[in-house]
Write a structure and sequence with these properties.
about 300 residues; two-stranded parallel ribbon; 5 helices; rod-shaped
Length: about 300
Amino acid sequence: MSHTAHIPSHRKPRRSASKLALRAGVAGGVLSTIAVAGAAGPASAEPVTETIEMPTLGSLGTDLSSAVAASAEASQQEALDQSLEAQEAAALQTAAKEAKKAKAEADRKAEAERAEKARQEAEAKAERERAEAEAEARAEAQARASRDSARTQLSTTSASSDSGSGSGSSNDSGSSAGSSSESTQVSSGTAASIVAFARAQVGDAYVTGGTGPNSWDCSGLVQAAYAAAGIDLPRISYQQSSMGTSVSLSNLQPGDVLYWGSRSGSYHVAIYVGGGKYVGAQNSSTGVVERSLDWDPPSGAVRLL
């Protein structure tokens, strides 16, 4: 321990540089004021004695403290405002990100729902088309089976007619009665063959220029039906209706050719099958159908047998 430690110090406390500067500034200001006042007065004037109230150091300290406190408070308020603005900006940015994310998720779900709906509709459409195709195939198979059966029966009937005709000729070639009977049998067998062929095509498609075996137009069907009975007809409808003899619609027989329009200018033909009905290749919507004469009354008829 130092031997002078117990001796109290008599040194004056050092004044801070700020306080010394403040006092020097105050004194300098006072002296400057006095000097200016003296210089401004007239030279001959008597000295003016003026009392100037000097601010006390206490009041200056209080004012300075207030100014410092106000500045600190302003700085603190500004810092607080900036902090709030930063927080608000961050909150807005976060909200915008969340909204964008939510919208993207909603769009994704909506797109997934649309895709699922489209897939279900496509599957349903494919199922309907498959069912329709199967139904159409079954109907076509049944129609083909029916036509094949009718054609087989037609071949059997034609063979029987030819056999009966040949037998009648060999038994009594000079008998007029036998000849008449043979003629009747041949005509009856020919008409039956024509009618059977025409009915066997019901359900086939209508195609312009079609001549079979599964699609026809009106004159193509009539030509093929007569060809099945061994009779050749022209291809065009007005040529077919111009052949044979004209008959009344009230005196029709199976196998007669019906026509629509004038006899030499017909635009449609069909085959009368008996019972007030006819078979014809009508149009692309109906195909080959069997209809009543009342459904579409013809203009006239011709007999070729």
